[in-house]
Task: inverse folding
């Protein structure tokens, strides 16, 4: 483990940390007061019922039956389709639920169980998971950001309190976890811990373990797997002594491999008694039959589907192959660049690029998967505030149809407004003259982030203009969705327009972030010695 | 940043729209219907709903004007017989009306915070993001926000010595909600002393009766009387009915949920004594009317004497009088009298809250809001504020009883007290803010004195000072080497360091930057503490 020169001697700005933290938590509860997905919508309900159903299954049946279609476990009704850690988590919550309110986890009888106290209980479980996994990781990352740059920094976005507030107030995750109802905060929190161990502490083994745990909570974390793999692999080949280099490589690689395999075995051990079990679980995790995308996703296939009905042109097999090839093509530049010209700063950018490539091109994408892209972008925000902020707004906006379906319009508007306001306050802290609308101006934003650097003013002007028109577009599309009656022939025209609009943005963002990554120079991630200051 | 903060707070208010709302929601809906449909001579007589109109006329007029907008949202809102009507549009309209009227409060908070030079953003946040108001207005549902906005406007006008405007706003406020009568004595005393006596004495004891200005009194009186005429004029022939609605003494000593005041203690003592007497075999009246049953009614105490409105009135007046007399004397001092005014306002609101008849727990806001303004003006007030704001807002928790609101209440309170506890102490921590300690200040003081001397004398003086310091340091050094025992080391150093400063005997050595015994004295001694900008102090002389 890398040791800092003087690990205890660092100060972080704590001015607004505590109020901001509490406010972020308050906001989570404000959203939680709203209905969840599938609220009073029999017969299938929504994600809330799925989570409750998993508690029921895990508490009432034996481990071996969790992923199998049995008389007690009807996989057609919200069968478990996440990896084992989710099942264990459900089991744990289910035990508490069984103790507090046995009715809520009765086998069969509890289907569609809804009550105010149960809702409060479920919201608390998300809230506590959020605090334990996501909030702690966010705090650590933000503290580290200020700790590294030292005392005499000028980037206001790296002040611990500001960074934490902006990190925790990102509307997308709050709306999906506390409004729509999911436990993304757990897998994303574990992922953040893994990233923290890589970018801050450089403890590769712990990072590997955390990431494998995240992967075992939600298989969607595969979006992030490539950068982790490439980065850690490259580190095995780094700074080798001349003598005995191969044994060094093998030694380093083995360390990580053992960590991965041990974690996997520990997590899967209770479930598995034969090879057949593994395939059964994998079959549940990767349901290839469910089609290339669900609902209206702002990725390439959904947008292409408007012009060419993909379902009739290609069958599933061909589609999977095509998706795979496209994803690899889109993700490769970032991965190869990370491998050949390694740099710690590139790691986060590579996470953004690869997950964005997966989101845009891969098979079976949900609209919520954009969170997997958004969280690395939140991490990157202090470095490149203007573009990241833009991306985060678009990503939240791309989920608008889903949120509308859940009746989360007011939380969507309010959280976005609050996020913009805090961002604007941040700019005001850096530049007293900044006005309420100065977040539209790229020059102001970059000056706040890094006053000494020189930027090309023409490009900044162009970016500001584009941002303004992009916001306009989002506003009018949202306005249309809410107030304009769609033509009878195309009832889904507005969700489709929204996803195409967001998709266009995401493609441009992929190009932009890939360019950003490639333009960074090589910088070997060797142990940094922080000078006493 | 004021715009951003207002936006954030407004966004939070929007969150609360579909949450729990109390019967007050129906009360105000009913008033919309009553004022919209009936002619004004029937407003105070209508009894279709049990929630009859019991606010002063201006509020009725406000409901009347709101009802015309309400019609556009949903025409069903303004039908009198639509009891307990709560369509989505009704909720939207009523909640929106509170949020929009709250901009007056934000304006009032801004006008008050603008008068403060140090910590004006803090006081703005504390006022605007007051969790009590958020709970009472935006969840429980009432229209307190804009009323406190008017109060703050009146206070800010008072501080800038615009007495007529201040009196006008306060009279308007009284005609919106008569609960503010509690603090009316403060206004009367202060206006008389500060406005009707044109000469001020600084000693604060002698009242210059000869300088009494009848013109000012008439100006003041005309303002107030004309506001009241405008308000009660249309109801002149039904005044007894209006007043019987405004002051319902039949409602009992304590509200359905006891306010945390003196009478709560009194009631509980009575309960305990009753149980005790029964246990001991004394015969006492056993009235089964439980005081906590949530019913609004009169209640006879079993053992202790029953309390009549007159008793509460006398007790309230008695507890206010010392503060009012002190205000009369402090009102003479031009420099600090506005500070005394706000302090007395808080104090009298507390007295009324403690001893008043049928006090609601929501009345705690009348203490908390002026106190939030004071919290940045003096260290003592700041300390009091962080304490009372925690307790006071906590006491509002039972108002929102549904279980799912618990976490919202907790985190709202935590956010608020985190702001208060983080920022208010740092406001008064002089040494931390400037990075200076007493030695730096002393050094500057010496430097300033040296600059006034001629060069020759200054050099001589420097030499003298240096020789004294050199002597002391040598003394210290010897003490160190002589006394190697670690235990005595610290005390020895301290005793020498005190003796160091004795021979210098400069006037600066008596300057103590950290004396904080009485914030009033501190403020009058040290110009650094004067945060209020006196704009018109001398113009009105």
Result:
């Amino acid at each position: 483990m890398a040791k800092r020169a003087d690990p205890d001697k660092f100060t972080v700005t704590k001015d607004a940390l505590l109020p901001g933290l509490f406010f972020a938590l308050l906001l989570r509860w404000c959203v939680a007061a709203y209905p969840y997905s599938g609220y009073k919508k029999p017969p299938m309900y929504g994600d809330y019922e799925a989570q409750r159903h998993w508690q029921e299954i895990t508490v009432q049946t034996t481990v071996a039956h969790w992923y199998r279609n049995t008389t007690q476990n009807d996989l057609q009704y919200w069968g478990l389709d996440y990896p084992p850690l989710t099942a264990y988590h459900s089991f744990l919550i289910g035990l508490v639920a069984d103790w507090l309110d046995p009715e809520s986890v009765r086998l069969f009888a509890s289907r569609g169980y809804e009550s105010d106290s149960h809702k409060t209980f479920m919201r608390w479980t998300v809230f506590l998971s959020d605090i334990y996994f996501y909030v702690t990781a966010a705090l650590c990352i933000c503290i580290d950001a200020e700790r590294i740059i030292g005392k005499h920094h000028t980037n206001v976005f790296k002040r611990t309190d500001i960074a934490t507030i902006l990190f925790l107030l990102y509307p997308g995750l709050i709306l999906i976890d506390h409004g729509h109802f999911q436990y993304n905060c757990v897998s994303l929190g574990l992922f953040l811990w893994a990233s923290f161990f890589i970018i801050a502490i450089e403890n590769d083994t712990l990072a590997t373990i955390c990431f494998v745990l995240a992967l075992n909570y939600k298989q969607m974390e595969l979006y992030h797997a490539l950068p982790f793999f490439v980065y850690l692999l490259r580190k095995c080949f780094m700074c080798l002594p001349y003598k005995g280099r191969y044994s060094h490589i093998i030694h380093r690689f083995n360390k990580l491999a053992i960590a991965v395999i041990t974690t996997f075995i520990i997590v899967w051990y209770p479930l598995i008694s034969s090879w057949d079990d593994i395939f059964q679980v994998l079959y549940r995790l990767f349901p290839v039959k469910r089609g290339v995308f669900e609902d209206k996703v702002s990725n390439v296939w959904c947008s292409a589907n408007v012009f060419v009905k993909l379902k009739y042109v290609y069958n599933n097999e061909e589609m999977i192959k095509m998706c795979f090839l496209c994803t690899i093509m889109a993700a490769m530049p970032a991965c190869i660049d990370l491998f050949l010209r390694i740099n710690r700063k590139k790691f986060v950018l590579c996470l953004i690029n690869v997950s964005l490539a997966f989101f845009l091109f891969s098979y079976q994408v949900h609209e919520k998967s954009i969170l997997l892209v958004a969280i690395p972008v939140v991490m990157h925000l202090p470095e490149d505030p203007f573009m990241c902020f833009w991306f985060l707004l678009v990503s939240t906006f791309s989920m608008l149809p889903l949120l509308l379906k859940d009746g989360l319009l007011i939380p969507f508007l309010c959280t976005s407004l609050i996020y913009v306001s805090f961002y604007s306050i941040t700019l005001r802290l850096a530049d007293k003259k900044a006005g309420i609308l100065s977040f539209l101006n790229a020059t102001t934003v970059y000056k706040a982030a890094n006053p000494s650097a020189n930027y090309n003013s023409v490009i900044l002007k162009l970016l500001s203009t584009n941002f303004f028109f992009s916001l306009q577009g989002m506003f009018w599309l949202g306005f249309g969705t809410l107030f304009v009656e769609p033509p009878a022939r195309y009832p889904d025209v507005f969700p489709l327009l929204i996803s195409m609009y967001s998709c266009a943005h995401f493609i441009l963002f992929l190009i932009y972030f890939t360019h950003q990554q490639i333009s960074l120079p090589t910088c070997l991630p060797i142990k940094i010695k922080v000078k006493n200051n | 940043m004021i715009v951003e903060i207002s936006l954030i707070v407004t966004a939070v208010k929007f969150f609360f729209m579909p949450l729990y709302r109390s019967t007050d929601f129906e009360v105000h809906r009913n008033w919309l219907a009553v004022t919209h449909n009936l002619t004004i001579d029937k407003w105070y007589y209508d009894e279709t709903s049990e929630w009859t109109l019991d606010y002063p006329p201006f509020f009725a007029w406000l409901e009347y004007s709101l009802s015309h907008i309400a019609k556009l949202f949903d025409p069903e809102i303004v039908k009198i017989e639509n009891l307990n009507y709560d369509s989505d549009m009704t909720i939207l309209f009523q909640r929106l009306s509170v949020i929009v009227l709250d901009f007056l409060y934000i304006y009032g908070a801004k006008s008050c915070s603008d008068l403060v030079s140090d910590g004006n953003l803090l006081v703005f946040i504390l006022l605007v993001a007051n969790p009590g108001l958020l709970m009472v207005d935006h969840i429980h549902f009432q229209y307190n926000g804009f009323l406190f906005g008017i109060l703050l406007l009146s206070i800010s006008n008072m501080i800038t010595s615009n007495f007529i405007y201040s009196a006008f706003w306060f009279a308007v406020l009284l005609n919106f909600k008569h609960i503010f009568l509690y603090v009316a004595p403060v206004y009367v005393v202060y206006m008389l002393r500060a406005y009707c006596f044109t000469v001020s004495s600084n000693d604060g004891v002698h009242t210059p009766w000869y300088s009494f200005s009848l013109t000012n009194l008439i100006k003041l009186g005309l303002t107030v009387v004309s506001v009241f005429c405008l308000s009660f004029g249309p109801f002149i022939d039904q005044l007894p009915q209006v007043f019987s609605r405004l002051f319902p003494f039949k409602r009992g000593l304590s509200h359905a949920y006891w306010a945390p005041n003196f009478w709560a203690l009194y009631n509980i003592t009575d309960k305990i004594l009753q149980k005790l007497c029964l246990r001991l075999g004394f015969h006492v009246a056993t009235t089964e009317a439980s005081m906590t049953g949530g019913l609004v009614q009169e209640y006879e105490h079993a053992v202790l004497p029953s309390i009549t409105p007159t008793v509460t009135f006398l007790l309230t007046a008695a507890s206010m009088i010392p503060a009012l007399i002190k205000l009369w004397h402090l009102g003479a001092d031009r420099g600090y009298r506005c500070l005394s005014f706000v302090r007395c306002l808080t104090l009298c609101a507390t007295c009324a809250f403690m001893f008043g008849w049928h006090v609601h727990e929501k009345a705690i806001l009348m203490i908390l809001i002026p106190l939030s303004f004071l919290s940045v003006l003096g260290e003592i007030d700041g300390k009091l504020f962080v304490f009372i704001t925690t307790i006071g807002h906590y006491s509002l928790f039972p108002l929102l009883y549904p279980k799912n609101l618990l976490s919202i209440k907790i985190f709202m309170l935590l956010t608020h007290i985190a702001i208060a506890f983080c920022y208010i102490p740092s406001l008064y921590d002089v040494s931390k803010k400037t990075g200076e300690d007493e030695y730096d200040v002393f050094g500057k003081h010496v430097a300033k004195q040296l600059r006034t001397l001629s060069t020759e004398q200054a050099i001589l003086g420097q030499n003298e000072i240096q020789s004294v310091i050199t002597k002391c340091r040598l003394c210290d050094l010897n003490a160190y080497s002589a006394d190697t025992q670690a235990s005595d080391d610290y005390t020895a150093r301290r005793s020498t360091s005190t003796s160091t400063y004795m021979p210098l005997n400069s006037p600066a050595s008596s300057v103590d930057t950290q004396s904080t015994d009485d914030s009033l004295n501190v403020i009058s001694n040290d110009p650094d503490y004067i945060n209020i900008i006196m704009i018109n102090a001398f113009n009105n002389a």
Residues 116-149 of chain A form the longest helix (34 residues). Residues 1-5 of chain A have pLDDT under 50 and may be disordered. The two ends of chain A are 22 Å apart (CA to CA).
